[in-house]
Design a protein that fits this description.
The complex is a heterodimer of chains A (140) and B (323). With 140 residues, chain A is α/β, with parallel strands linked by helices. Helix content of chain A is 39%, strand content 16%. The relative contact order of chain B is 0.13. The chains are: A alpha/beta (140), B alpha/beta (323).
């Protein structure tokens, strides 16, 4: 059997984390191809149901990356994300989804190296947990 | 029965408590208008009807059927399919038929667990011989069977096509009345419509915000003296209003009880629980010396709270079964 290659969705904020991904790219740093990037204007734009939908559609892990606290382009978007993520972890646990499958990270525009590290760590983590396998069949 | 032009109406219940059947009688004198133009041809909760009465009808013979209750066993599914075939218009009536309702909360567990809990573990259950329901029993008179209970509770829409939705636990007499009016006059809204408001409950609620919407701790309604003018969320009480459809007239918040979310999500919201989570988490503001997690630890059972009526209709529908 071939090795499990997880699908990971990463929501990156336009002003910091997406720029970090760009900077990782322009400095020719490599990171695993398991990451599917979705650019959003602010990490605060990511509604909790985006995360649930990602899991429903087959993601094995979901990341939200935004500006460091205090650095949000919209002043307090990332503070709202932080609160939602904290409560979402509890909810995912209740749904039987390992909380490690969802991660929130602050990555600034200059942290291309850190972007690569976080992505690699996440892929390793999800590989160790295994595939998601949600039971969503309509009929029992 | 002589008037051939009379409409034919049916009312059926699946996994429900009977409250929706009761509310149909709360339309008071309007029921006389209804009886004037319609015959009730199937209503097992109130009158003596058998499944065979339904089977003998021609396809599409019933003009309208109000279906309340969620679908959680093979009998519910069979009847839902049969009723769909026999009715021109099928209305999901009440929160259980629309979103799974309270029975939908058993999607956090499995059928086997639910049966074990109900028959063996409940403190109020007396079952020393540990008798459990069986699907088939051989009796001297013949073989007896029971429907098979499912692991996952479904909404009516997940099993058959539904024409209209009337939410509520139970739907209010006013909404039931307006649905009945629409049936009588033949002026039905576009197929797929939800017969209720379109906005969030907050739009109907007349409480006001006094401190820029900040929650510093969570409280149960009986743990605090409620200011009747102020938004309940600001007073630390989790209210489902921001993620719930309007149309009930804010009955609960009018008497200082938080909205429980029985009207389901408003237009454009797919997952009521996630929307409520987003609304609540965004306004949490930990006081000095406390962390975000400290504040959230005051929330008991977020899943049950956010998805009280809509778990079966939510994005994930149920908790993961580990097998």
């Amino acid at each position: 059997m071939s090795e499990f290659e997880p699908k990971i969705v990463a929501f990156l904020c336009n002003w910091c984390s997406y720029a970090a991904a760009d900077s990782a790219g322009t400095s020719r740093k490599a990171y695993p191809a398991n990451i599917r990037v979705i650019r959003v204007m602010c990490s605060g734009r990511v509604e909790p149901d985006f995360i649930l939908k990602a899991f429903k559609e087959g993601a094995d892990g979901v990341l939200i990356c935004g500006c460091h606290p205090g650095d949000c382009h919209y002043l307090e978007g990332n503070y709202k994300t932080e609160r939602r993520a904290a409560l979402l972890h509890t909810l995912l646990d209740q749904f039987g989804i390992e909380p490690e499958r969802f991660r929130l990270e602050w990555i600034s525009a200059s942290e291309g190296e850190r972007f690569v590290t976080v992505m690699a760590e996440m892929v390793e983590k999800i590989k160790s947990i295994g595939p998601m396998r949600l039971e969503l069949k309509a009929v029992n | 029965m002589s008037d051939k032009a009379k409409m034919k109406i049916g009312i059926y219940w699946a996994a429900s408590c009977g409250g929706c059947d009761v509310v149909t009688t709360h339309i008071n004198e309007k029921i006389l208008d209804l009886i004037e133009v319609a015959d009730i041809v199937f209503w097992p909760c109130a009158m003596d009807f058998k499944y065979d009465d339904l089977r003998q009808m021609a396809d599409g013979e019933m003009d309208v059927c109000l279906f309340n209750g969620a679908i959680r066993n093979s009998d519910h599914e069979e009847l839902a399919e049969l009723i769909r075939k026999k009715s021109k218009v099928l209305i999901a009536f009440g929160s259980c038929a629309c979103f799974g309702g309270i029975p939908g909360l058993s999607n956090v567990t499995t059928a086997e667990e639910s049966i074990r809990r109900a028959y063996l573990e409940e403190p109020t259950t007396l079952n020393p011989e540990k008798v459990l329901p069986r699907l088939e029993v051989r009796a001297p008179e013949g073989d007896l069977t029971l429907p098979r209970i499912w692991d996952t509770v479904h909404t009516l829409k997940q099993v058959v096509d539904v024409d209209y939705f009337v939410p509520g636990c139970p739907p209010t007499a006013e909404l039931t009345g307006s649905a009945v009016d629409a049936i009588i006059s033949g002026k039905l809204p576009p197929a797929g419509s939800v017969i209720a408001g379109n906005k969030a409950l907050c739009d109907e609620c007349d409480k006001v915000k006094k401190n820029e919407m900040r929650m510093i701790e969570f409280k149960a309604p009986w743990e605090t003296e409620i200011d009747p003018e102020q938004c309940l969320m600001e007073q630390g009480i989790v209210c489902s209003g921001p993620a719930t459809r309007s149309g009930c007239g804010a009955q609960c918040t009018k008497v200082n009880m938080p909205c429980r979310g029985c009207f389901g999500p408003p237009d454009g919201v797919e997952d009521q629980g996630a929307a409520l989570l987003g609304a609540i988490a965004s306004v949490v503001s930990p006081p000095a010396g406390k962390s975000i997690d400290d504040v959230f630890s005051g929330l008991r059972d977020p899943l049950g709270l956010f998805y009280r009526f809509s778990l079966a209709d939510s994005m994930l529908r149920r908790t993961k079964i580990s097998k």
